[in-house]
Amino acid sequence: MGIVFRSEETFVSELEQLRRMLVACGGVQRRKDGEDFKTLKSKPIEDAEEKIVCVTSGDSFLGSAIVNELSSHGYSVRVIVDNPEDVNKLEETTNGRHNVTVVVAKLTDVNSLVEAFNGCRGVFHTSSSIDPAGVSGYTKVMSEVEMRTTENVMEACARTETVRNCVLTSSLLACIWRGQPDENESIGTSQIVDQTCWSSLQLCQHKKLWLALGKLKSEKVAWKIAQESGLKLATICSALITGPNFHLRSSTATMAYLKGAREMYTNGLLATVDVTKLAKAHVLVYEGIKENASGRYICFDRVISTADEAATLAAEIGVPVGNIVQTDPPMDCTISFQLSNKKLSDLMARSNLQHRCLNENRYF
Asked: Which CATH entry fits the domain spanning 45-257+272-302+338-359: 3.40.50.720, 3.10.580.10, 3.90.25.10, 3.40.50.620?
């Protein structure tokens, strides 16, 4: 009988495959005890338990908006902060709301996240990464941090017995950069850009579009873990986030998003979304997951298509208009491609119809 000597790399790879298999088995077994197999094992769940959720990076511009929206919908929200010193600060900004609590957990530590998620039915991962240097923008290193953080969150969701659903904040950037570096067209060839479109990993690396790369790799790893574990996942591919008190947020994510903005604008793919509308979309999608409304969603509310609109946006977010559009002479975009958020719009329409029917039934 021969003896096969395995390299260290092969051994590590096999261990990783075994770990993934165990996570998947654990996820399937956990869901057999949950809502997917209620006919086999009846275990009543209180409505209050269904309304307990967790938000990572809940102190970010988007995270705080999601917390506010969830709180107003009657959810008990657990907000994760990385630094113990931020607990009191964040508790003050939540105005002492009884249904919002702040916990400390490390996004770099899966066990810490499992402890924080325990008891929650759902997790919102806003995937908010900040450049430690604070001046160099979103770097290639940050794209790796983004992916690893998302991987940790998803692993923790899969290992936490109570967690059923997860909503991940991705980016429109993970959809629009679809060409190849050696092709004439950089953004892609299909005229309609919707949730089925994926950016090219090679193109993002070639153009050094690190935020696009980070969001793309984060989404890919999230879907891989969700499929292996049986976790229900929805991802929201958000346009550039704007809104009230926008000037108070960190500019890192904005500047990183605008890398390649001229090309996006020229092709009709530079879009924005108000932070409040985006937060509402997160809650809507989360509530729709129970009705199998998982998958990817594109979220935006306006496309920047004229030089005047570009100038207005530049003033709004505090950047030179030249970062967005050619200024000599200023040009309107050609709209070579068309963004589609039909999937989200259809979900919203169904939700509005259901609420209307419920309200009408109260009178009979």
From this structure: 3.40.50.720
